[in-house]
Specification:
By secondary structure, this protein is an all-alpha fold. The protein is 71% helix and 0% strand. 16% of the residues are buried.
Length: 96
C-alpha cells in the first residue's frame, strides 16, 4: 500500500510531516513484528546444526530478527502500520 492510498484527503498537515508520520508507523510495525518473531527464534536449537550455535550467533540473532521484521513491514507487514498512521495523524491534527 502506498502513502497516497492511506493519506486522508482532508489532512491539513504538510506533506513532509505526513511522510514522517508514515515512516514512524512503518518503523513501529517493523519493531512489533520483530517482537512477535523473537520467541520463535528463541526456541530454535542450533547446537546440533552444521553452522549453528555459539556466542557469535547469539550476538547476531537479535539483529537478524530485526532485519526480518523490517523486511516484512516493508513488504506489506501485518497491517499494523495503517491504523497506527491514522492514529498518529489524528493526534497531530488535534494538536494544531
Amino acid at each position: 500500500m502506498t502513502q497516497a492510498a492511506i493519506q486522508p484527503a482532508a489532512s491539513n498537515l504538510p506533506p513532509e510531516q505526513t511522510a514522517k508520520l508514515w515512516q514512524s508507523a512503518r518503523d513501529f510495525e517493523a519493531m512489533a513484528i520483530g517482537q512477535l518473531l523473537q520467541p520463535m527464534f528463541d526456541t530454535v536449537d542450533v547446537k546440533k546444526a552444521a553452522f549453528g550455535g555459539g556466542e557469535a550467533e547469539q550476538a547476531w540473532r537479535p539483529m537478524l530478527v530485526d532485519a526480518i521484521g523490517k523486511q516484512m513491514a516493508a513488504n506489506g507487514g501485518i497491517g499494523l502500520a495503517v491504523p497506527v498512521f491514522n492514529a498518529l495523524l489524528r493526534a497531530q491534527e488535534k494538536g494544531k
